Amino acid sequence: MQKSILTLLATLLLFSCNTTESSKNNYVSKTGLITEKAMVVTAHPIASNVGKAILAKGGNAVDAAVAVQFSLAVVFPFAGNIGGGGFMVYRNKDGNATTLDFREMAPAKAHRDMYLDSAGNVIKDLSIRGHLAVGVPGSVDGMIEAHKKYGSLPWAELVQPAIDLATIGFPVTKREADGFNRIRESLEQLNTIVPTQFFKEWNEGDTITHLELASTFVRIRDEGRAGFYEGETAQFLIEEMERGEGLISQEDLDNYHSIWRNPVTSSYKNYNIITMPPPSSGGIALTQLLQSVESFDLKNMGHNSANYVHLLTEAERRVYADRAEYLGDMDFYNVPIKQLTTPAYNKERMESYHPSKATPSDSIGSGNILLESDQTTHFSIVDAEGNAVAITTTLNGAFGSRVVVGKAGFILNNEMDDFSIKPGVPNMFGLVGGEANAIAPGKRMLSSMTPTIVEHNGKLLMVLGSPGGATIITSVYQTFLNVAEFDMTMQEAVNAQRTHSQWLPDVIMYERGALSEEVIKKLEDMGHKMLDRGNIGRVDAVKALENGKLEGGADPRGDDLAVGF
Ligand code: GLY
Fold first, then answer.
1. What is the Å distance from ligand 1's center to 393 Cα?
2. I want to staple 374 with a disulfide (CB 3.0 to 4.6 A). Which of 223, 387, 467, 537 is the partner?
């Protein structure tokens, strides 16, 4: 191993424990880490420091993003991945923005009723666990395309940290140790070759290595796209599918390509929102939510007051109802983007809003219970030049399908569950859908991921995003409003407790402690059903300050860390 790599790793491991330098945040901190010119905020301290090291050696935000994406696949396998997919929103220092869709797609052999029995009923868990739940992975192609267009450092240098981390190993955090222990049984049940690297009773600080994954990364480093979609890695993946009766073929891998798409852009007062188009629902939904509330005096209502939560909920109810009806992969379905993101349309939708009465969702439809999951991950990067990257990437559920590709060591997604597997039947996030998001070969499943970049008076202001399934959109929405309407610092905006509603089920979820007893009572009196729960979202964000410095906002709900220089 090269000496420079060893030095880099030693630095990473040192930084991962150095909470002073990198400002490990908690709920009480008022201001996040402030840096002069560059910032990386991710869900894992080691991945954050990989990104910082790449920026420090002259890489740009996209270089750092590639290295972070691959490192997360090693150190944060709950959601970090090469077997999943994601979205990137990129804004360069001159203000030009684009997005990259590296979402998974349905294999050619997939079909609309593939998760139904002969009576037309949904077969429990078939779209969530095991080989049939897997969409064709997009992350490696996405990173290659992003690097080809915007990268500046050699590809090999960006893949190398993942190889080193997987080979040498790294200490697991308490949260990760608990996660590994929790899923051991299902890994045993769902895998055709048991992934023994996960098999022991894990404790915080134990070292974990991923040697087969390291070999896969060597092939990606040396052969680029062919190192994943062809040759040995592809062969291992196809053999895994054959053993587990999955659908992905070599043809699917050959046909997978990430897609550059125009961002969804809109304005909110003098802010400009740059975010992700379909197959994400996030960008359109965020735009609709903001247009729905823009004319109200939010500041005067007060943060997390009954009136504020009521208003947000009423907007969410209407927007998530539209999501279920109209949103899907726009390459397969004619998504009415223009109409949905027109201010007049969203204003009109709010005409039935009553300031003190909940609109029952069953006047629109009926739903089911939302399961908690935050096994997607988001990272935000700003480099010294002012280029900004927001990437949200996912395996869908925790450890995705829980299938680890034999001999290749990487975990496969269970993204097929993000399709509407039967009209009106909720997915694992309680989201329903219909024709727009029905399964079809080669189609991309609808996502809620909402990587977003915000400008203020034409200048970069914020880079943000979150995991959390259906709650991603509302987490980004509230974090933005916390800054734009309530003058919070980036860290306060990230820390602030959140609420969530999504039309169906007809309920307001709130983080335990987010709302006072009085506020809860007032909302119940308005006709809302209230449900307290654990964390909602896990936002990692960067804010550009007026003095030219940057503030990181790392979510204290996880092991997340902001670092920079
Ligand atoms: N798998 C979560 C999402 O894409 O919304």
1. 8
2. 467
* Residue 172 placed within a domain: yes
- The C-alpha atoms of residue 483 and residue 491 are separated, in whole angstroms, by 10
* Three-class DSSP category at 551: strand
- Annotated catalytic residue within 192, 376, 471, 474: 376
Q: Closest ligand 1 atom to the C-alpha of 472?
A: 5
Nearest protein Cα to ligand 1, atom 3: 447
Q: Which of 45-59, 186-200, 256-270, 385-399 has the lowest mean pLDDT?
A: 186-200
**Number of separate domains in the chain:** 1
pTM for the whole structure: 0.94
Nearest CA to ligand 1 atom 4: 447
Q: Residue 376 catalytic?
A: yes
Say if 505 falls within a structural domain: no
Q: Which residues span the domain enclosing 418?
A: 2-260+373-437
What are the pLDDT digits (tens) for 126-146? 999 999 999 999 999 999 999
Each residue's pLDDT tens digit, 475-507: 999 999 999 999 999 999 999 999 999 998 999
CA of 536 to the centre of ligand 1 (A): 14
Q: Is 70 exceeded by the pLDDT of residue 1?
A: no
Residue to substitute in 376, 446, 466 for testing ligand 1 pocket (most ligand atoms within 8 angstroms of CB): 376
The radius of gyration of the chain's CA atoms, rounded to the nearest angstrom, is: 22
Among 135, 105, 119, 171, which residue's Cα sits nearest to residue 403?
135
Amino acid at residue number 103? R
In a domain, 237, yes or no: yes
Alpha helices per DSSP H over 191-278: 211-223, 226-229, 231-244, 250-255
Would you say residue 23 lies in a domain? yes
What is the dihedral sign for C-alpha 367, 370, 375, 377? positive
